[in-house]
Write a structure and sequence with these properties.
It is an enzyme of class 2 (transferase). InterPro entries: Glyco_trans_43 (IPR005027), Nucleotide-diphossugar_trans (IPR029044). GO terms for molecular function: galactosylgalactosylxylosylprotein 3-beta-glucuronosyltransferase activity; metal ion binding. There is one protein chain. By secondary structure, this protein is an alpha/beta fold. The protein is globular and about 65 Å long. The strands form 4 sheets. It has an 8-stranded mixed sheet with strand order 1-7-6-5-8-14-10-15, with helices on both faces. The chain is built from 10 helices and 16 strands. A hairpin with a 2-residue loop joins strand 2 and strand 3. About 35% of the residues are buried. Helix content is about 25%, strand content about 25%.
Length: about 325
Amino acid sequence: MGYKTKADPVRLGESELEELGDQGLVVNVFNEKVSVSSCHYLDCSIENKRDYETIDARSLKSLSIIYVITPTYARLEQKAELTRFSHTLLHVPNIHWIVIEDSPEKTVLVQNFLNRTRIHSTHLYAATPSEYKMKRTDPHSLKPRGVLQRNAALDWLRENTSPDDDGVVYFADDDNTYSLQIFKEMRNTTKVSIWPVGLAANLRYERPKVTNGKVTGWYTHFKPNRPFATDMAGFAINLNLIHQHPEAKFSNTFAAGCQESTFLTLFNLTLNDLEPKANMCSEVLVWHTRTEKSKTPFEELMVKLYGADAYPNIEV
């Protein structure tokens, strides 16, 4: 495993805060740059203002960081999916994107991609052993994916952050679809916040059941009696809890489909500890989408017709 981190997150200084005053602003913190826009320039209507984290400029210094953990692996669609997800994250203030490659080393493609983004990021890598690797033709749920990569990110967090730091940890795959509102919802997680996930587990959605503001069970078809029957995209954890339980990690030996539930049991949680978000788990703000695997059957034919590709090493 290895890692690379961009410059430290940027915070607005007192002079900038004095200049900005107390107006409502949408603030994005990029690598070594701060972008501040009023709702006027972003056309924040009443309908869409809810999705943006509109915050008082003076509040930025105390805004907790969301650590977004994203495993990724080499495939034709990789750069396209990372690009799409990065465009969502550009609208979220105070995030730290931890991207972990399933590779024995950092690849040029991902390194160049992260260098071009304006998102504060850390680049890690951890190779999955061959016996646990998925083949391209394997069913999607045959083996767990991203196990060692998520663990590498957890190790990095425990080594590079403090139990006193104000932060939230979210496991976000690169092929899912995220409303900006979901990041706003998870920002103030005390222990573990939780919400529905659309298009998950062969259902329109799966969700926690909530009664009188408390999670009481799970609406899902797949093993509904799991202690925490949620999707990887359906919860966030306070950073302090990650430090309190250094033994809490994912494992390739967990039962199929039980990575999330088994991982959460390692924090000694009960349903009463869960914090239902998304209007008491009545709204879908994240979708477990999957990009269709690309097929390129005409590549060899094009070479036969026109000779060698003029740009054989072009990034796609």
